[in-house]
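Hello again, I could really use a second opinion on something today. I've been puzzling over a protein and I'd love to understand its fold better. I'm sending you its amino acid sequence along with the backbone structure tokens. It would help a lot if you went through both lines with me. I've dropped the whole record in just underneath, so have a look.
***
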Amino acid sequence: MKPYKLSLPLNQTNCVLFNSPHSGSVYTNKFMQLTDLSLSTLRSSEDLFVDELFSPVVDLGSPMLSAKFPRSFIDLNRDCEELDPLLIDDVTAYKDTLKVSAGLGVIPRVVADQTPIYKHRLSIDDATERLQDIYFPYHEKLKSLINQTEASFKKVILLDCHSMPMSSVNLSRKKDPVEVVLGDCFGRSCEHEIVLELKNLLIEVGFKVSLNNPFSGGFITKNYASPINNIHVVQIEILRSIYSDEKQQLKNSEFSKTQKKVIDAIKEFIKRFAD
């Protein structure tokens, strides 16, 4: 099984690509045997329904890549060298980042609430297998989409799509929480005109939008962006509770309304940056 789902329009008509690396929900029996956690606890790390939320973009002429396997199994928005020595045996070389220290490396040690995932440590062979079978093929496909789009349109705008739990929103703003956070690595991953246009369009359809706070962009945003070469990346975080019941892990009655607002903004954005 391919580690990704690639949804392609009949004809790609614009330079805007969509990526959802954390919405995968294929939990294999092999994975479940390695943990004592319930499926619902593991799913707390998922970007619930984000791939479905953005899926209509394909009808607007844009490709969309999304993960099949869950973030708790392998995190595609990390460097492949962010291996956790507290989880994986015989790790000799790794990047000791803040994410790794927090148990959130490329193969996470914990789920969203810091609960340990595994009953036992993993072997380096287990880690290598996941990288070879899932991580590298996914990123190769993402690279090829970027290269093909750049060749056709001389420009790429990659929108990296995520969701954020209510717990990530500043407590002081819970009465009026930010609903969408756009991350451009504080201006390093995207021309300001592009992210500002996206922000304004999302505000116009009714979202409360923040830029780079509390999320400024992850590995994909930083790694694939090259504004000097006309390759722009923006991370989009949508507040999970506005379209789903976080505890029940089900879409709520506002899903269709939220999706329409998102797509209305994206449709106008694509019109303005179509070539």
Summary: The radius of gyration is 18 Å. The longest strand covers residues 156-164.
